[in-house]
From TrEMBL:
Pfam families: TctB (PF07331)
Species of provenance: Reinekea forsetii
Transmembrane annotation, as ranges: 12-33, 45-63, 75-92, 98-115, 122-144
Tagged with keyword Nucleus: no
UniProtKB keywords: Membrane, Transmembrane, Transmembrane helix
Record carries keyword Iron: no
Name of this protein: Tricarboxylate transport membrane protein TctB
Domain DUF1468 per the UniProt entry, residue ranges: 14-145
Signal peptide location: none
C-alpha cells in the first residue's frame, strides 16, 4: 500500500523554504524593470524564468509521494555552512570586493567538502577568478565590485 501521508523530512523542509525564498525573489525582481529594454523582455526576464522553474521543482519535491522505506534525510553541517558562506559572500561582495572575497570562498568551499589537494585548490581558485574577471570585465565590459581595493 503506498504511503499517502507526507513525511516531514529535512528535504521537504528545505524544498518548502527554497520555494518560499524563490517566490520572494520573484516578487522583488518584478519591480526591477529595465528602462531601456525593448519589447516585453527586460533584465528581469531570465531570472524570473529561472525562479519559476525553482519554485515548480521545489513544490514537486515538497509534495512528491515517498514509500515507507524511504530513508530520512539528515541535515549536513558542511552543507549548511556552505549555504551560510554563500550568503555572507553575497552580503559582503560590494563592501569588501570581488578580488578579496572570491578567492577566500573558493578556498573554503572545497576544504569544507573534504578536498585536501591544496595545489589543485589554488590552481582552480586562480583559474576561476581570472576566468570570471575575463568574461565580465574584458568581454562583457561589466565591472566587478572593487570593494576595499578601490576603483
Amino acid at each position: 500500500m503506498p504511503n499517502s501521508v507526507i513525511n516531514l523530512t529535512a528535504d521537504r523542509y528545505f524544498s518548502a523554504i527554497l520555494a518560499l525564498l524563490a517566490a520572494i525573489f520573484f516578487v522583488v525582481i518584478g519591480g526591477k524593470a529595465d528602462p531601456g529594454s525593448a519589447g516585453n523582455l527586460s533584465a528581469s526576464t531570465y531570472p524570473r524564468i529561472i525562479l519559476s522553474v525553482i519554485i515548480l521543482i521545489s513544490i514537486y519535491l515538497a509534495f512528491k509521494p515517498t514509500n515507507a522505506h524511504a530513508s530520512k534525510a539528515k541535515l549536513s553541517l558542511p552543507g549548511i555552512v556552505s549555504i551560510l558562506l554563500m550568503a555572507i559572500y553575497i552580503a559582503l561582495l560590494e563592501p569588501i570586493g570581488f578580488f578579496i572575497l572570491t578567492p577566500i570562498l573558493l578556498i573554503l568551499l572545497p576544504l569544507l567538502a573534504g578536498f585536501r589537494s591544496y595545489r589543485w585548490i589554488l590552481i582552480s581558485v586562480l583559474c576561476v577568478t581570472l576566468t570570471i574577471y575575463g568574461v565580465f570585465v574584458l568581454v562583457l565590459n561589466i565591472p566587478l565590485p572593487p570593494g576595499l581595493l578601490g576603483d
